[in-house]
From TrEMBL:
Family affiliation: Belongs to the peptidase T1B family.
Source organism per UniProt: Molorchus minor
Protein's name in the database: Proteasome subunit beta
Subunit-structure text: The 26S proteasome consists of a 20S proteasome core and two 19S regulatory subunits. The 20S proteasome core is composed of 28 subunits that are arranged in four stacked rings, resulting in a barrel-shaped structure. The two end rings are each formed by seven alpha subunits, and the two central rings are each formed by seven beta subunits. The catalytic chamber with the active sites is on the inside of the barrel.
Top-level lineage group: Eukaryota
Length: 245
């Protein structure tokens, strides 16, 4: 057992807990680390189609860069793609594949199969040997996807499927620093799609309980230096105009 005593300060913010934690670390205590595994994206099949889900937080290391970015990307009328990894890479990759699918459809005169988009994505990502930071979930009406956790069954209806996807994304939002903010959902049916942007505001902002405007003197001023500044004004003089006869 040990105790630490800190001198009281007349005013200003208190950093006693920071000094305490630093001292405890020197004594061998392991400070718990926050979990950060990245984006949370999911996809399931139900009896009439596919449901995709994603959170909306974009991070730069420990900084939240965008609280409401789009991670469900349009590929074609019958398929969408969830993207995790580097935001610029996922956006560029999905836009390029979407363009190729549109050209393919115009050339063949028929709707592209999801297997076609899957092959295009695999070939493009393999070409760069991991240097493109894009982890993707592709979903469409003609692709049978893998079993999605314990809540899924082959006869699940649309309402239950949406709830399952919402709950899966919410688990990532509340347990992972790389996921956060809102939940987007995309329902892909035979012949139609329904992209629900901000389907659920999972992590709602709390109501401010008090004012955070601190009065003068809260932070103690250690030293003051006054500089005399002489104001100098510059007046522009127009050149004389010479009239010619």
């Amino acid at each position: 057992m040990f105790s630490v005593t800190y001198p009281e300060t007349a005013s200003g913010f208190s950093f006693e807990n920071c000094r305490r934690n630093a001292l405890l670390e020197t004594k061998g205590l392991s400070i718990p680390k926050a979990t950060k595994t990245g984006t949370t994206i999911v996809g399931i099949t139900y009896k009439d189609g596919v449901i995709l889900g994603a959170d909306t937080r974009a991070t730069e290391d420990t900084t939240v860069a965008d609280k409401n970015c789009e991670k469900i990307h349009y590929l074609a009328s019958n398929m969408y793609c969830c993207g995790a990894g580097t935001a610029a890479d996922t956006e560029t990759t999905t836009q390029m594949i979407s363009s190729q699918l549109e050209l393919h459809q115009l050339y063949t005169g028929r709707v592209c199969r999801v297997a076609t988009a899957n092959q295009m994505l695999k070939q493009y990502l393999f070409r760069y040997q991991g240097y493109i930071g894009a982890a993707l979930i592709l979903g469409g009406v003609d692709l049978a996807m893998a079993v999605f956790e314990s809540g899924w069954n082959k006869d699940i209806d649309e309402e239950a499927g949406i709830k399952l996807v919402r709950d899966a994304i919410a688990a990532g939002v509340f347990n992972d620093l790389g996921s956060g903010s809102n939940i987007d959902v995309c329902i892909i049916r035979k012949g139609s799609t329904d992209y629900r942007r901000t389907y659920d505001e999972a992590n709602k902002k709390g109501v401010r309980q008090q004012s955070y405007r601190y009065p003068r003197g809260t932070t103690r001023v250690l030293s003051t230096k006054v500089l005399d500044v002489e104001e100098v004004s510059v007046q522009r003089v127009e050149p004389e105009r010479m009239d010619t006869a």
